[in-house]
Amino acid sequence: MHELTDLASVAGQALEPRLAALQEFAVEARYEAGPFPLPAERSELLALLEAELERCERAVAGLD
User: Fold this and answer.
1) CA neighbours within 13 Å on the CB side: how many for 56?
2) How many other CB atoms sit within 10 Å of the CB of residue 63?
3) For the whole model, what pTM was predicted?
4) In sequence order, which residues have a C-beta less than 8 Å from that of residue 61 and are 6 or more positions away?
5) Percent helix, strand and coil across the chain, each rounded to 5?
6) Which phi-psi region, left, alpha or beta, contains residue 12 (left: φ > 0; alpha: ψ -120 to 50)?
């Protein structure tokens, strides 16, 4: 499954809106030709993604 909002929902987690907006970008870029503006600056999105990954890793580690 690659739908971030669905994954967050199944995990019972909130998803930062700018990360949720990446789904639309990914689908458009995959199936259409043309420029696709990101919902925020790449560096900002990368920082959000890295923070989300760390949060998920801490949550999974707590399941042991």
Assistant:
1) 15
2) 5
3) 0.64
4) none
5) 65, 0, 35
6) left
